[in-house]
Structures are given as structure tokens and as C-alpha cells.
Design goal:
This protein is of the alpha/beta class. Helices cover about 40% and strands about 20% of the residues.
Length: about 325
């Protein structure tokens, strides 16, 4: 299967669905793509470009959702989350508790995927911020097949949702488009290992698979889980998957110790009362302005393949000795 951009995979499905579903409405904050040009040309009455005005984007989208439309709002990830956070809280998170609405935010540019644009366009905080809004569903995909599969969840289930997409074209993880990952479970196990399990989201799944290969060469069996539903994954199924493991490693392209999936799993394990040793892999706090490849930047901030392999190997040896 030829890889493609996550946004184009989902936008293509939205464009196709708009021909048969008159309730789908698309809004954009001056952000385009070739597929979006088709939506604008074929469905001009259900497309609005609000300009560089993300706060307005959210309020207009909320109004359309209250009128019964299934709304897809589209912008660069840091701008559709941080620039308009008050509107997300008031017009979507709060209002959706008393009024039925279906609005789906497509944020493109997770983590370091806008490599050359620097920290203004990179996004390390969104997992923390969007998890903090209790009525939001948050999805973080690792390839375009998973991104496209989210259409059914977006159209069939009401409520505000945040779809966290990478800006780069990533290798395909789920090579059979007819068998996407199980959205009902919210995660998929890709490797089974008896020592530790790497729980990764988004781009970091690709790193986790490479790290698992490196660890296997050193005699360490590491399992790998793709966590794509951040807020609604099946807790019982996760507990069964982690049974018998010596420890877990969470991996995210976001700030470590700042409320991302590391905090999610600390809280998840404490509630179940059976905590495993836990190593949190994430971006070391602070902003950087250096340019480089994504892998180079990742090594600098502690989430690169080489650095993570060393950290996990040390962690695995320590937990096995306990």
C-alpha cells in the first residue's frame, strides 16, 4: 500500500461522504490541501474558510453543529488547540454537556512533524490540553489507514473530538485497508514481549517498533502497543494485554511529565490497583530553536531511537532484577 498523508486519507473519505450525507459541513482556518480544493469546488454551500481566525473557526463550527450538522474543523494542530482554547472549553466542552453537537477538530502537525518551522508550528502540548477537557474524545494516529478509519466514529457518534494527525507521510502500519485497527478497543498490540511493553501513540509507534527490534538483538523481549484512542480505550482489554509484563514504557511526542499519556497511565494503573513499574518517554521540558531532521531533533530531546533504546534496556534490566 502506498503511504499518504493522514489528512488526505480522511479528507478523501469526507469528500466522498458529502455526496450522500447532506449533514456534513467543513470549516477551515485558511489551511488547504488538494483534497480540500475538491470539497470546496463540489460542495460550496457546505464549506467555509474563516481565514486565519481559529477562535472564530470554533464558534462558527459550534453554531453549525447546534443546527444539526456534523462538522469537521481543520487547522494546524497548535493553532486549533492553543490559540482558541477558551472557545474549545466554553463553546464545545461545556456546551456539549447540555446540547447535542457533533464537531470534529482535525489538527495537522503533531509533535515535530513541521520540522523546519520551529516551536511556533510544532505541537508538544496538545495531548495534555485536550485530555483536560472531559467531554472531548482524543485520537492520535500512526498511519493514514487509521486516520481514514476515524470517519465512522466521527459521523456516528456525537460530541466534540480532536484528531491529532502528523503532517508528514509516514510508513503504513496497517497494510490492509479493509482491516483497520479496532476502534472499539482503542489500541492494537503489534509485538508480544515478556519483559516490557512499549505503549506508543502517533509517530512514536514507528520509533517503538524500531526500538523493539534493537532490544531483541540484545535479548530483551519488548511488546509494542499502538494507542490511538487516548481517552476511550478499553481499560479491561488493556489490563489483559499487560498481564504478566514486568513493566511498561509510555512513548509520546509531547512533553514528559506534563499530563500526556504518561500521566494517563499513572492514573490508569493507580485506579486498577495493580501498578507495574513505569518508564515515561517524552520530550524533555523546554523549547528548542535548532534545525535538523526529525530523528536528530528527537535524539536531542530524549525521544530518539538510539536514546530510547538505551533507556528502555536499562529499565528492563532493573525491573527484571527486582
Amino acid at each position: 500500500m502506498k503511504p499518504m498523508a493522514m489528512r488526505d486519507a480522511l479528507l478523501t473519505r469526507i469528500w466522498q461522504s458529502m455526496a450522500t450525507d447532506p449533514k456534513i459541513f467543513f470549516t477551515s482556518a485558511d489551511f488547504g490541501s488538494p483534497v480540500l480544493d475538491r470539497i470546496r469546488a463540489d460542495f460550496p454551500q457546505r464549506f467555509i474558510n474563516v481565514g486565519i481566525a481559529e477562535q472564530n473557526l470554533i464558534n462558527i463550527s459550534a453554531g453549525l453543529a447546534l443546527e444539526g450538522f456534523t462538522v469537521f474543523a481543520y487547522a494546524i494542530a497548535p493553532f486549533i488547540t492553543m490559540r482558541c482554547y477558551e472557545q474549545l472549553r466554553v463553546s464545545l466542552a461545556l456546551l456539549s454537556t447540555v446540547r447535542r453537537m457533533n464537531i470534529n477538530l482535525i489538527g495537522v502537525g503533531a509533535g515535530y512533524s513541521y520540522v523546519v518551522s520551529g516551536p511556533t508550528h510544532q505541537c508538544y502540548e496538545d495531548l495534555t490540553l485536550m485530555r483536560a477537557l472531559p467531554t472531548f474524545e482524543v485520537f492520535s494516529t500512526a498511519d493514514h489507514v487509521t486516520a481514514a478509519a476515524l470517519l465512522e466514529r466521527c459521523t456516528e457518534r456525537a460530541g466534540p473530538k480532536y484528531l491529532r494527525f502528523d503532517a508528514q507521510v509516514l510508513p503504513v502500519i496497517y497494510t490492509d485497508a479493509d482491516q483497520p485497527p479496532p476502534l472499539s478497543t482503542g489500541f492494537q498490540r503489534h509485538r508480544t514481549g515478556g519483559d516490557v511493553t512499549l505503549i506508543a501513540t502517533g509517530y512514536m509507534l514507528h520509533t517503538a517498533l524500531k526500538v523493539a527490534d534493537r532490544l531483541a538483538a540484545d535479548g530483551i523481549a519488548a511488546g509494542v502497543i499502538d494507542l490511538f484512542d487516548i481517552t476511550g480505550f478499553d481499560r479491561d482489554a488493556m489490563a489483559e494485554t499487560l498481564a504478566g509484563q514486568s513493566g511498561i514504557v509510555t512513548m509520546e511526542e509531547g512533553f514528559r511529565g506534563r499530563g500526556g499519556i504518561d500521566a494517563l497511565f499513572f492514573e490508569y494503573q493507580s485506579r486498577r490497583g495493580t501498578p507495574l513499574p513505569h518508564l515515561a518517554i517524552g520530550v524533555e521540558g523546554g523549547y528548542r530553536f535548532e534545525l535538523g531532521t526529525r530523528s536528530e531533533l528527537h535524539e536531542q530531546v530524549g525521544i530518539g531511537e538510539v536514546g530510547v533504546t538505551a533507556a528502555v534496556a536499562d529499565f528492563a534490566r532493573r525491573v527484571s532484577a527486582c
